[in-house]
Amino acid sequence: MISMMGNALQVLALLVALVAAFCLIGGVKLRREGLVNVGYLLVFGNALALTGCIAIILTCLLTENYSLAYVVSNYPVTDSALKPLYQVSAVWAGRQGSLLLWTWLISLYAAVVAWRRMRTTDDLSSVALGVIEIIVALFTATLVLSESNNPFMATAAEYLNDDGSLVSPVAGMNPLLMHWAMILHPPATFIGYAGATIPFAYAMAALICGDLSARWVELTDRLAVFAFIFLTIGMALGAVWAYVVLGWGGFWAWDAVENASLFSWLTAVAMIHSFTMYRKRGCFKFWSMFTAAITFVFVVLGTFITRSGLVQSVHAFAEDPVSTYFFLGIMVLAGLAFFIGVLYRHGTYDDEDEVESLISKNGSYYITNIVMVTGAILCAYLTVSSSLPSFLPLGGQVVGAGAYTAVARPVGTLLCLLMAVCPMLGWRRTDGAAFAHNMRVPAILGALVFCLLMALFAFKFAPLYDQILADGGDAAAGITEQGPKAYYFALTILGFLASALLFASSAYLLGRGVRGRMRNKGDNAFAAVFNLFRHSPAQAGGYLAHLGVAIVLAGIVGSSMYVREVTLNVSATEGETAQVGNYELVFTGTSEYADGTSGMVKQVDLDVHEVSTGHMLGHISPSMEVSAATNQSTLDASVITLPLEDLFVAFQGLNADGSLSIHVKVNPLILLNWIGAGVTVAGIALAFLPRRATPLLAADER
Predict the structure, then answer these.
(1) Are 592 and 584 in contact (CB under 8 A)?
(2) How many angstroms separate the CA atoms of 239 and 231, rounded?
(3) Cα–Cα distance for residue pair 598/84, rounded to 1 Å
């Protein structure tokens, strides 16, 4: 009964989306206002039907109703205090539920747009809603037409007792997903992915309607920023989960699915900046449309990679032919529709004189867009290269993480330098004397910060480089493949320089805004900060986001370029010691216990001392859990966080001789990654605040 109800709602949602698209687009073209109004009502009906689908899955998980095979496969088998939240997160833990969640979220975005525009039902919004409903219909079709995507497949009768309980225990949710970050990471990411549909739909509507004014950007840019906030949060939470759960002590491995989130994020950055230029300066019209389209295509490419099986990834689902053809078709159709629309409207939009000089704000935005989009395309190409024909460059070859890193480090650093300088440039052209005046204070502040970072480099990182090489292993191999020592050190210095200058320029601009309000409005310091973000949220939030990026850059330099990694074989004798750098680990015992019905946990207890001072830093208990149902091992690492570095310790099991295999990483400056990510998200979120018609931060920003 539940299976039939869910399937009926999915089919209903598909039909309603198709009819809504016809009513909305056809009503505009036929000038039938009544038909358009019906389309708006059907948008709400589609969202309601898909909400019912989500409600059925959620209710079954919360009530332990195993009549759906999806519930059997994804129910969290644990006695954790977080189990109720895991039951909720099980909605999106599997391939079927995650696709349903994504489809539902797109329908909610459509409902929000319909609610905001239903009083005016302007042609632009009506056609955009029609495009969104076509996309919802295509996504829903992948649920309806593929058994492997359908979350409402009934559980086979032989697996259920008469009372609805399971005949025998099953594995349920993957133990790796039972972590607080995975409760939040997927929905945050999917909110961002679903939100990418809206700018694309409005760009297509502008081409269809022939309205190439800034109106479509004004109607969609706030939802675009909202989606970008969640894309950023999703990436940050994914990095946290990878660091603390997977047991390898890193947060980014250039895995195919990780890359999928990155290249859509890069084009989204270009889109947000293009929207700003279009809305405020009347330029970057084509860039705005192009980045809206390519961001949507890349979002779909991400799920294509995840679900097609063509690219291998630890995060990917099993191959599904329906998903392969449907999502490939969505990408091709979206790209062709945009290309045809641009050709049809060729000559009706004009971007003349948008970049008179590359040494200007316009020019820096232009360069940033080129680098972001080119980087995203290159990253996407390298990610799928293993599935491409051999006659294409790198076709059939798997590109290793070192290749991505070799490109990303210098390009990312130069982008941050550009971000630091851009606000000091003039619009259209830059006067040399004015630029020198604007850069004077940021240069001095940046020099001070750079000196602090260089002291850290000279006394910590430079000696650490040789120690890492002496340790050997993967960390040493990763360093040597990036080039000679002189080049590696030059990248470090350039990275610290970019971080220092970006930090200084962003802090200076925020400080200038605060001082301006204190001087002109008579605000005290706290009121000035509050009112700055209240009255100029876009500019102030943008500078705060750039400040966060500067902090992240310094963190990435340390936590990706100077990581010391050692695997220790420690005798299981109380008092046995091992040393890594300035840390001494003292074995104090082991314990083994059952974790409810999930399996057995073996825990190692260690005291950690600082060698140079003899001070005890703390007691850690890394563990390994082995699932009773699948025999899968899950590592629960322990981390001691200090201001300048993390000590990451993971227990990897017993060696043949009975000794303990302990994996230790010393991650310098990794705390800056989490701090910087938080500051960046806060800045983007503050930029999302309602805008007020008040003067900007300073006269020269106008």
Answers:
(1) no
(2) 13
(3) 16
| Distance, CA of 600 to CA of 626 (rounded, Å) | 5
Number of C-beta neighbours around residue 426 at 10 A:
17
For the chain, state the CA radius of gyration.
27
List, for residues 633-654, the tens digit of each pLDDT value.
778 889 999 999 999 999 988 8
Distance CA 238, CA 220 (A): 27
Owner of token pair 């895995």 = 255
Q: Tokens 């009934």 identify what position?
A: 154
* Unique residue bearing structure tokens 């029609």: 130
Number of Cβ within a 10 Å radius of residue 445 = 18
Residues 186 and 179: their CA atoms lie apart, in Å, by 12
In degrees to the nearest 10, what's the CA dihedral of 594, 597, 599, 605?
A: -30
Number of Cβ within 10 Å of residue 255's Cβ equals 17
Residue 667 tokens read as: 């991650």
- One-letter amino acid identity for 701? E
564 to 482, 555, 694: CA distances (angstroms): 16, 15, 51
555/337 Cα distance (integer angstroms): 42
CB 412 within 8 A of CB 403: no
The answer to whether the CB of 191 falls within 8 A of the CB of 105 is yes
Question: Using DSSP, how many helices (H) and how many strands (E) does the chain show?
Answer: 22, 10
Average pLDDT for 257-280: 89
Rounded to 5 degrees, what are φ and ψ at 625?
A: -110, 130
CB 235 within 8 A of CB 140: no
| pLDDT tens string 537-568 | 888 888 899 999 999 999 999 999 999 988 88
First to last CA, the chain: 62
Determine the 3-state secondary structure of 624 from DSSP. strand
pLDDT over 90 at 676, yes or no:
yes
Please state, as a whole number, how many other Cβ atoms lie within 10 Å of the Cβ of residue 44. 17
For residue 404, give the nearest of 567, 263, 545, 549 by alpha carbon: 263
Paired residues of 591 in beta bridges: 603
Q: Work out the number of other CB atoms within 10 angstroms of the CB of residue 17.
A: 31
SS3 of residue 142 by DSSP? helix
Q: How far is Cα 64 from Cα 72, in angstroms, rounded to an integer? A: 9
Helices marked H in 457-536: 462-471, 473-480, 485-521, 525-535
Element at 376 (helix H, strand E): helix 361-384
Q: Is the pLDDT of residue 482 over 70?
A: yes
